[in-house]
Protein: P2X purinoceptor
Amino acid sequence: MAAAQPKPTAGTARRLARGCWSAFWDYETPKVIVVKNRRLGVVYRAVQLLILLYFVWYVFIVQKGYQDSETGPESSVITKVKGITSSEHKVWDVEEYVKPPEGGSVFSIITRIEVTRLQTLGTCPESMRVNNATCDSDEDCVAGQLDMLGNGVRTGRCVPYYHGASQTCEVSAWCPVEDGASVSQFLGKMAPNFTILIKNSIHYPKFQFSKGNIENRKDGYLKRCTFHEVSDLYCPIFKLGFIVEQAGENFTELAHTGGVIGVIINWDCDLDLSPLKCNPKYSFRRLDPKHIPASSGYNFRFAKYYKVNGSTARTLIKAYGIRIDVIVHGQAGKFSLIPTIINLATALTSIGVGSFLCDWILLTFMNKNKIYSHKKFDKMVDAPEQSAGPELCASKHSQQDPALMDPRGLAQL
Structure:
């Protein structure tokens, strides 16, 4: 039978505790091994160089990693349109062709209208564009039926259409319906010369920085200038034709079908430089999907009401136009010690990736990988159980395998 193991005494426990407490304050440093291998050295220095280039060029120069940044400035936009145009029957001014008239960041300029005059409440044939509106007899029309895409409630009668030999179900609605009596008028003849003032102010609260896109002059500068990217950057007065052209669109086509144009103002400001270097950059592009017929174009309806012989009548207008969306975005940055320290620490830490990669190559692919493994890692020798007490917390260096101290192994790498 095996000899009984001695039970640990209180003195042994105290010695164990003191040994562990002493070992807690030991400092251990990794072993450094110099491997004379040209190919491995090239890989190591190449990885270090790539990491340095990434942090110096991309992080610090391109991304300005030494700066604290703020995105999405507080912004206000005020717009004003000027110009007159004419259609086949009248002259149109700003009060009639700009909707809404408040001068916000989103507004529409009407370029074509379909007018249905003298609509009154009564009964009339339904539009042929409405589903199941055509009929051959009264039996095809159900009284009281309401189509949400139609113009009114069906009376149950089948009546002749406005023109041609077709018949549709009669409805109780504003009559005549739009498709039966509308007249088209084009307002876009002089619309390319309309001028649009876009007044924009931005504020970055983190840096207490504010700026506007209009030059501070008192000589009537805005009354005689139009926007030019080089000579008149701070004259935000754009011709409608210029905006459409910069968005890559044909004005006549866009005026007939309608569309949405975005005016994008970008404020990217490096506040380590002079405030004069913080300038707006304008770009223009079409926002609605013109290549998808089902969702391209832009139109809306509104009506003007009046009295005729004591009865209420209205003129229904279906308006096609160019909607302008003014979109403001940007980013400001300024030197800050905290992101600089963080990025420097990340760069210095990342350089260690080269050592990790070369160690992996040595341990996996090199012919002498086992010798390198013995030299890099110290292996602990199991101690007898009876002496395990105080020596459990002993330093690793006192328990190295003497067989691993052979200096010839390193010379073979």
Observations:
- The CA atoms of residues 268 and 331 lie 5 Å apart.
- The mean pLDDT is 84.
- The chain has two domains: 30-64+336-411, 74-126+177-333.
